[in-house]
Amino acid sequence: MRISWFIIVLVVLFTLELVGPVREYVIIPFTGLIASVSAFVVQIFDPTVIAHGIVLQDSVSRIAVSIQPGCNGVEAMICLTAAIVAFPASWKSKFYGLFWGFIAIQALNIVRIISLFYLLQWNKEWFEWAHLYLWQALIILDALIVFIIWVRMLPEDEDNDEDEQTLIPQT
User: Fold this and answer.
1) Domain range holding 107?
2) DSSP H or E segment with residue 55
3) 94 has a pLDDT exceeding 60
4) Residue 143: inside a domain, yes or no?
5) Does 19 map to a domain?
6) Cβ(84)–Cβ(150) below 8 Å
């Protein structure tokens, strides 16, 4: 892995995420989509759950969770993107890794949001602990596992002439 590429991509993407227009026109709408998908999944077995904007709410008890930036899986995806971009592989393989990584991270994130939604209804202290410690670590671990699986699934004969030349010492 080219560590300089990893750091550059990480810094650029985290900086972009914090820029006002990107946050307003990309991150917040994406987070709203995550809330809507979470509500859709929950409504299969609990029709009292609704989503409005970035909020997932029980319409009967009025208990709600607000999915804030940082809780939408974007940071885990940024870390995965930096790792995949920095790793010597074809762009086709990188695209597949990013696509399936996005699916895996967001699928687990929806499980996270739904579990936290119901945990909040049961016990606020357990919600806080699971939200701040357990799920933060699990989402990042998910990105790491996706990266490891992606690396292991790369074809061995992939054409990386540029990368091979950088590994061969020049005399």
Assistant:
1) 3-152
2) strand 55-58
3) yes
4) yes
5) yes
6) yes
Q: How many domains does the chain have?
A: 1
pTM, full prediction:
0.83
Look over the chain and give the mean of its residue pLDDT values, rounded to a whole number: 89
Per residue in 29-86, pLDDT tens? 999 999 999 999 999 998 999 998 999 988 889 889 999 888 899 999 999 999 999 9
Residue 164 lies in a domain: no
